C-alpha cells in the first residue's frame, strides 16, 4: 500500500465520531469565515461575470445556491460562483506549510453538493474535514517547487474540493482512488497572471471547486481515473513538482488534524505585513502611545517581506496599499485597524495615514528570516518624538493557530465583511451567525444562507 | 512584439478570404470525420456518463446540441459531451508533429458556440481554421518533453478550443491575448491514466473543449487573463515543458496552413500498425495473393512500434487486438479491412485471422527508425507457401497529408462509423454527408446534425 492508498483508506474510514470536538468547532469557525468572505465580494468585479456565466450556461433554478445573489442553480454552478466569490477580498483562510487556501475550494464545492443531496450539517462537517485533511497534505506533498509556478489553491484545490464532495457522497476506498485520479488530471492554475494583475485568481478557485465537484459526481456515476495520480510516473508530482515528498500524504492521519493548523486572516493586507502590524499595535497599547508621538518605525522582517512589499514605494491603488508596509502600519497606528473598510476609505486619502507611512522602513532581520516560513515573527523598533527607543515582539501573528481568533472576534470580522459589501444588514448577519453556530444540528442546508 | 503577440495579431486579422480553397475544403473533410467519430461512440462507455452529467448540471434544453442524443443544452455542456464522444473510438484526426488531435477539441467547442450564436457555416470554418492553426503551433511550441507527461490534446486542446470560439465571437488582438491567458491557466491533463486504462481520455477532451469555450465566453464578458501565458516565467512552458521553442508559435503564419498537415485515421488500430498494414495490402493486391498463400510476414519497423506493440502477445480484448501487429495484419490479409466493425466482430473470434496473426513478426529497421517520427515508413517482407520472398514499401501511410483520404473514402469511413454504433441509417448518413459538403453555404448550424 502506497501513501496515496493509505490516504484513500483514511478518507473512506473517517467517521464523524473520530473527529475531536475542537476540530469540529474550528471547522464551524472556518465555515463562518468563508461565508463572510463570499458575501463580502457581492457586486465586485469579477464576481458578476461568474454569475452571468452560470445564468447563461446553467439551469434557471436548482437546489444549490449562489451566495452572492441567493439564486438557485445546479451544484456545478453554485460551486463555480461561490469559489470565485469567496477568494476575492482575500480574507479567507490559509494553511501555512501547504500554502493552500482550503475554505474557498472545499466549502464552495461541498455546500453546493450538500444542498442538492439534502445532507445535514454533520455530514457537511465530516466531508469538509476530509477535504481539509487531504488537501493540506497533498499541498505539502507537492512542495515549494510546485508553488513557484503553480497556484496551489487552484491545482491542489481541485483535489481538496473533490475529496470533500466524495466524502459527502459516502465514497469507499476504491472510489476515493478513482476520485483522486479524476480530480488530479484536471488540476491547473499558473501564477503568470500576477504580473498583469489579471482576474485569474477567481477563475482558479471557481474552477477548482467546480471541477472537484465534477470529479466526484462523475466518479460516483462510474468514471474511472488513474490509480496513482499523485505519485505515478506520469502523475501530478512527475509533471508539476521537483521536490515532492510522499511521506507528507499520510502524515499522522487520524492524530494530526491539519484543519486546526489553518490560519484566519485578520488584517485585510498582504500577510507579510501582519507580524509587524501586530507588534506595533501591541507596543502602542503597552506604552499608551498615540500615533503623533511616534517619529520612526523600523520593522525587522524576513527577506520575503522585502521582496514582496519593497516594490511599493507610494501606493496609488487600494490593492497597492495592502502591499505597503507603511500604509498598513499607518492604518494600524492612526485608526487601530486595517480592515477592508479602512483600506477602501482611508488608506489613500487620510493625511495622517500617509504621514505615518513615511516614517516606516523595513530591515532584514536574520533571526526573523531564519524562522520563516514555519514561523512569522513580528519585530518593530519605535523611536518616539521625545527620543525614546522602544521595541516589541510578536511570535505568532493574530489569526495563526496559536493566536487564533475567538468566536467574538470571528463574529466581528464576519459582520465587517458583510458591511463592506452591504450584502446583509447587521441583524441579518447576526441571525446568520446564530444559524452557523448551530451548524452541526442542521438537518438540511438549503436555507442556511 | 513577442511570438504570442504575433500569433494573437494573426488570429485577430485572419479573414475567410485569406484561407486557400484547399484548406477550406480540408476543413470540411475534417469536420465530417469529426461528426462521424462522435456519432460512432453513441451508447459506448463512458459517453453516457457525460450525457447524464450535462442533464444533471445543465439546462433542460438549449440552442446547442449533443450529437450522440440530439438533445439541446447550453454551449458549455454541448462542448463537454461532444468533446468526450468524438475521441472515444479513436478514429478522429491527428497532427503528427504537434501530437495534437485538433478536431475533438476545436469542433466540439466551436459548433456549440456557433449554434447558440446563430453563426453560419463560413463563420464556423474561419473559426475552426484559427483553432487548428493556433493549437497545432502551441502543441509544437510545448515540445516532446511536454507530451511525455501531459496529454497535449487536453492541455493545448483547451487553447485550441478557446481560440476557435474566440474567432467565432470576433475577438480583436487584445481579447486574444486575454483569451490565451484564460485558457492556458486552465490547461490540464496527465498521461498517468494510461497505466490503468482509465476513462480520463474522454474527460480530457470533454474538459478541453468545454473549458476553452468557458474561457472565450468569459473573456468576451471582460475577464482578463495573463498576457504572456505561453512564454512567461510562470506560464505554461515554464511549468510544463523543458524544450519549448517560441519560434514555433508564429511559424509561417498565413503561408503555412497547419490544418492541411492533419492526418485522417484510416485503420481502426494503433497508428504504429498502419504503415505495415498498408504495405501488406499493397503487396497482396500487386501480387494477387490470397491470405492462405502466405507463410510468413516480417514487418520492418521503428523502435517505437516495438515498444508499444511488443507488449501484446496474444490479444484477449478488442482494445489489445488494435495493438497487436499480427491481429491487424490478419484482418487486412483475410478481410481486406481493419475497421471498427472488423475489430469488434472478427479480431478475436475468426480462426483465419488468428492463424495469420501467428505468422507475423516485427524487426527493427534502421532506415525506418531513422525516418520516424517525421515519416512513418511501411516495410514488409512476405514469404509465400510456394517459397517466394516478396517485399513492399509504403512511404506515407493512408490518411497522412501526402496520401490523404479522398471524399469518397471519407464518406465510406463516415458511413462505417455511423453503422458501427447504429446512430444513423445509411440514408440518414448520406443526407448528413450532403449537408456537410454544403457547410460553407449553411446560414445557420442548429439543425445541421
From TrEMBL, chains A, B:
InterPro entries for this protein: MmgE/PrpD_sf, MmgE/PrpD_sf_1, MmgE/PrpD_sf_2, MmgE_PrpD, MmgE_PrpD_C, MmgE_PrpD_N
Stretches assigned to the MmgE/PrpD N-terminal domain: 5-247
Residue ranges of domain MmgE/PrpD C-terminal in the record: 267-438
Family matches, as PANTHER family: 2-METHYLCITRATE DEHYDRATASE (PTHR16943:SF8), 2-METHYLCITRATE DEHYDRATASE-RELATED (PTHR16943)
Family in the record: Belongs to the PrpD family.
This protein's name: MmgE/PrpD family protein
Organism: Pseudomonas coleopterorum
